[in-house]
Design brief:
Pfam families: AAA_16. It comes from Nonomuraea typhae. The structure is a single chain. The chain is built from 46 helices and 19 strands. It is of the alpha/beta class. The strands form 6 sheets. Strands 2-3-4-1-5 form a 5-stranded parallel β-sheet, sandwiched between helices. The longest helix is centred in the last third of the chain and has 24 residues, at 912-935. The radius of gyration is 43 Å and the shape is elongated.
Length: 1023
């Protein structure tokens, strides 16, 4: 039966008692619970089962109010059992009456088992209750079952009465859903079920009434008339003092802290002399004020324990934990709250606001663990106090950190209601934040309108601070026209790149906030600036900005800004190769855990995953990546892209290319725009030169139009692809792009570590045959990795160092053994070089000493005089497989940069566009250095100067006298002929002195515009 949803256990108890009465002896069962909880329905079901089993049921109900005769429920029972019996008129004493009624029941039960049902015993007169006790005691051995219903705390039944008690409580959430479905014929959604359950406490009658109103189109906040009447009846039994305290509790909310309630009651009555009575509340329609005696010394609070105890006994509130209580359902709270007029509500909310603050002095707008912040904002709004907008905005920020953007939108709307219309700048900022939150929850049309309105107001007001703030908020969100417009108004110039716009705007905004001493604006602007300048090479400045943000957060007691600063600082220190990044990240994780804000919980997981990848705990990293994905969507973070990047990082370091291919397939299926870059990196790591170059061509054809956050991965890929190609132009260009970041680490999107930049510079040096530089670079890289305990990258760099040592003729056996052992420990598949003597056997030497070459190969040694062709061969043999332009062999003193591009004709090392970008960046750096010097900020000035010097060094290497671009020369054809002739002559002469070596070189060396040494089997040479 639908009416018995969730009552299976109580129904089973009653069935057992019926069976006992039918077969052996009787008993008394008392069914208790609040009005509407389903007592009558349960008893009715039991009575029906009793009739089916062969019993006779005698039902009666007590009468509420005056006018009912004594023993009224028993009068009904006797009439139904023996209509002709006149025991009530004939009995001379109560005892004679009790005995006569009991005798009639015993006699009737011997003819047929009896079930007596007495409803609403809380309304029974004293005589009826005593008669019940008499019957229960003296008919124990008869086939007689008495079932009574009553509201616990409202009846005068003796606690010594021997009875089985069945206490009914509210239905569970799932049971409420089932009851709503059966009541309305419509399956309700989870959110609706939750709201009805919260409002009704699971009371079946209240659930049915609310569900029917909802089905009829009424809002859930409507209190059904029948429910209101039921609640009012229960409240009417309370004293005026208890009811007044409960009204204050209703202002606090569904659940309330007892200490806060006491402080709120005192706050409402503040100002009354001790010992006098004060008017707490006058319910609408009453003429007499409800009074409560307040005799509390100043600074102390009213004792609410006694009123709460009475409310608990009346089943209106219930304990909700140590020192707190909750209304049994919202309908009780709302009925009490409705008794307050508008002035009373404002007064109550103001008192609640003061009470919350006084109960926890540590609660502030920026304190971690601000459990009361949303409550403070609600009470401030409903009390219409002056600090309400600030509290609402703080609550909105807190909601956003909890990823509760719907809640944040509500706070923003209420703040807009309270901010005066003449405060247009403030209203514009709120409207902008609301628009962004609306877009995050999918309300793009309304959110877009709010953002457009905010932009229009910012233009009209033409306030520099507001323009900069609005532009920085929209910088990464697809509003380039407005951002550039704001930049033109503030900077009075045009920036070529949107990145320059963000850098200049954030710098100006930060300076304004510092000058005005506005810590809130400064904190927000520092965050915007760190985001705007994020790219390789800015880690020093970002670390300084993060430290400044930490100081600002401490001054303004803004916990969220502290967490943001720690997160940014940890990332910047990692890019700088500073082991201190671990301690900063650990502090961030501890504070974020204490704050319990999902936004920062997500960031903690990202940092933990990054650290696990960095240190080679790959299985842990994969588990953390999956756990991060399960945290759900984050603002402006694509969860799939995040996980793909994390998993790919692990797969590439371990050499698990099957896993990498699976991730790439997922990215393609999802339509990710980053597939070419990641596919290229996978191909390059695999050693697939053709695949890597194919993706490089795709990316270069597109611009490449890559996000700034992917710049480190793009630099890595260029280095890998160029090195695999052995193309001198590609290698030189990739090297020039990476050299400014020497000594730093590549960290893509703050998520995945792509190794020390020294490692990738060394990879290019090795490809260019610069063995000394490559050895130094790989050594610097693995030492940097060891400082960070980045074992996978140490393994990578040491494995490549072994290759270089082999190419130089050294024996890296010990190094290779260590690398192989550690790679196995980490589960890495690393391609390790192996010395190969080839079929020639022995130790192979190609060395110039005192103008004489010592040549040893295939067991034969020859000494030959110096010749240019031998130098050419030595250069080729030093870079097996590399395509070396003949112009470089002809003029090795010119350096690699002079012939970086091997096209026919003379091309500049840097074209005009590249030089223009360098100059723009240098101009911007000069401005920032001047600005930092004016502020006395030596650290930031030094950071800018480091980047400036690196750019100047690159320009000097790429420019000739007077700043003219160095050209590559048009000597290709002449060089081809000259070098080819030199090598052929040398091989002809060498055939007479060392025929085995000459034959090997003729087979392995090719000449032309580019030359190459590519033996069929690797050969180790000692130089």
């Amino acid at each position: 039966m639908a009416i018995l949803i969730g009552r299976e256990h109580p129904a089973a108890i009653l069935r057992a008692e019926i069976n006992r009465a039918l077969t052996s002896h009787g008993s008394l069962v008392l069914v208790t619970g609040e009005a509407g909880v389903g007592k009558s329905a349960l008893v009715s079901d039991a009575a029906g089962r009793a009739v089916t089993a062969g019993a006779r049921v005698l039902s009666a109900a007590c009468w509420e109010g005056e006018g009912a005769p004594g023993y009224w429920p028993w009068v009904q029972v006797v009439r139904r059992l023996r209509p002709d019996a006149d025991v009530f008129a004939g009995a001379r004493t109560p005892f004679e009456l009790y005995d006569a009624v009991t005798a009639l029941l015993v006699e009737g039960s011997r003819e047929q088992p009896l079930v007596v049902v007495l409803e609403d015993l809380h309304w029974a007169d004293t005589g009826s209750l005593k008669l019940l006790e008499f019957v229960a005691r003296h008919a124990w051995f008869e086939r007689l079952l008495v079932i009574g219903t009553h509201r616990q705390g409202e009846s005068e039944l003796s606690p010594e009465l021997k009875a089985t008690t069945v206490a009914l409580s509210g239905l569970s959430r799932a049971e409420v859903g089932e009851l709503v479905a059966r009541t309305t014929g419509v399956r309700p959604g989870d959110e609706l079920v939750g709201e009805i359950h919260r409002r009704t406490g699971g009371n079946p009658f209240f659930v049915e009434q609310t569900a029917r109103l909802w089905q009829g189109g009424s809002p859930l906040a409507t209190i059904p008339a029948g429910v209101r009447a039921a609640v009012e009846r229960r409240l009417s039994r309370l004293s005026a003092e208890v009811r007044a305290v409960l009204r204050t509790a209703a202002v606090l909310g569904r659940e309330f802290d007892d200490t806060v309630l006491a402080a709120a009651v005192t706050g409402r009555d503040a100002g009354a002399p001790p010992g006098q009575t004060v008017d707490v509340d006058t319910p609408p329609g009453q003429t007499a004020a409800v009074k409560v005696d307040v005799d509390t010394p100043p600074g102390q609070t009213v004792d609410v324990d006694t009123p709460l105890g009475q409310a608990v006994a009346a089943q209106l509130v219930a304990p909700a934990g140590e020192g707190s209580h909750a209304f049994v359902h919202d309908l009780v709270r709302e009925t009490l709250y409705a008794e307050l007029d508008e002035a009373g509500r404002r007064t109550g909310h103001a008192a609640a606001l003061t009470a919350l603050r006084s109960s926890d002095p540590g609660v502030d707008l920026g304190t971690i663990g601000r459990a009361h912040l949303t409550e403070l904002a609600r009470h401030a709004y409903l009390a219409a106090v002056s600090e309400a907008p600030a509290l609402l905005l703080a609550a909105a920020q807190d909601a956003e950190a909890r990823l509760a953007d719907e809640e944040a939108v509500g706070h923003y709307r209420r703040a807009l209601e309270l901010v005066p219309g003449d405060e247009r700048a403030r209203r514009t900022e709120i409207e902008l934040e609301m628009g962004l939150a609306l877009q995050r929850i999918g309300e793009r049309e309304e959110g877009g309108r709010a953002i457009e309105a905010a932009m229009a107001a910012a233009r009209e007001l033409d306030d520099p601070a507001l323009l900069a703030h609005t532009a920085l908020k929209l910088y990464h969100l697809g509003f380039p026209d407005f951002v550039r417009e704001a930049h033109r108004r503030l900077v009075r110039g045009e920036a070529a790149r949107i990145e320059e716009v963000g850098e200049q705007l954030s710098g100006l905004a930060a300076d304004r906030a510092r000058h005005r001493g506005d810590d809130r604006k400064l904190a927000a602007t520092l965050l915007a600036r760190m985001s705007a300048i994020w790219r390789p090479g800015t880690a020093v400045e970002r670390a300084a900005l993060a430290e400044e943000l930490t100081q600002v957060a401490a001054r303004s007691n803004q916990a969220q800004f502290t967490l943001n600063a720690l997160s940014w600082h940890a990332g910047a220190l990692l890019e700088l190769g500073d082991p201190g990044h671990t301690a900063v990240g650990r502090t961030f994780a501890e504070l974020a855990g204490r704050a319990g804000l999902p936004l920062f919980e997500h960031e903690v997981m990202v940092i933990r995953t990054r650290q696990a990848l960095l240190q080679g705990r790959f299985d842990e990293a994969r588990q953390l990546a999956e756990a991060t994905r399960k945290l759900g969507e984050q603002p402006y973070v694509d969860g799939d892209e995040l996980r793909w990047m994390q998993v790919l990082s692990a797969a590439l370091l371990q050499g698990r290319f099957e896993e990498a291919d699976t991730v790439l397939a997922e990215m393609r299926a999802a339509g990710s725009g980053n597939v070419p870059l990641f596919a290229g990196v996978v191909a390059a790591q695999r050693g697939d030169a053709a695949g890597a170059l194919r993706q490089l061509t795709v990316l270069m054809a597109g611009g490449p139009d890559l996000l700034t956050w992917l710049a480190p991965l793009w630099l890595r890929f260029q280095a890998q692809a160029a090195a695999l190609s052995r193309d001198r132009e590609l290698c030189a260009n990739a090297r020039a792009a990476i050299v400014p970041y020497r000594g730093q680490w590549a960290v893509t999107s703050t998520i995945a570590v792509d190794g020390p930049f020294d490692h990738w510079i060394a990879v290019l040096d090795a490809a260019l045959g610069r063995w000394e530089e490559a050895a130094e670079g790989f050594t610097a890289a693995y030492r940097a990795a060891d400082r960070l305990d980045a074992r996978p990258w140490s393994v990578e760099s040491r494995a490549r160092l072994a290759e270089v040592l082999l190419a130089r003729g050294a024996d890296p056996a010990g190094l290779l053994a260590d690398v192989e052992r550690e790679a196995a420990e980490l589960g890495m598949r690393v391609r390790l070089p192996r010395p190969v003597a080839g079929s020639m056997g022995g130790s192979n030497v190609f060395r110039l000493e005192g103008g004489v070459w010592t040549l040893t190969f295939a067991g034969r040694t020859a000494h030959v005089p110096d010749a240019k062709g031998l130098h050419d061969l030595r250069a080729l043999m030093g870079s097996p497989g590399a395509e070396i332009p003949a112009v470089e062999l002809l003029n090795p003193a010119g350096g690699a940069e002079a012939v970086a591009a091997r096209r026919m004709g003379g091309d500049a090392v840097l074209d005009d566009e590249a030089k223009a970008r360098y100059r723009r960046r240098l101009d911007l750096l000069d401005e920032e250095i001047d600005r930092a010097a004016e502020r006395g900020d030596d650290r930031r000035a030094a950071a800018y100067d480091v980047e400036r010097q690196a750019l100047l060094d690159e320009l000097r290497r790429a420019a000739g006298l007077g700043g003219r671009s160095r050209r590559l020369g048009d000597e290709a054809e002449r060089a081809r002929k000259a070098v080819t002739n030199r090598i052929r002559n040398t091989l002809r002469q060498l055939g007479e002195r060392h025929p085995e070596l000459a034959a090997h070189l003729r087979e392995a060396v090719s000449t032309g515009a580019t030359c190459r040494y590519q033996p069929a089997e690797p050969v180790t040479w000692t130089w």
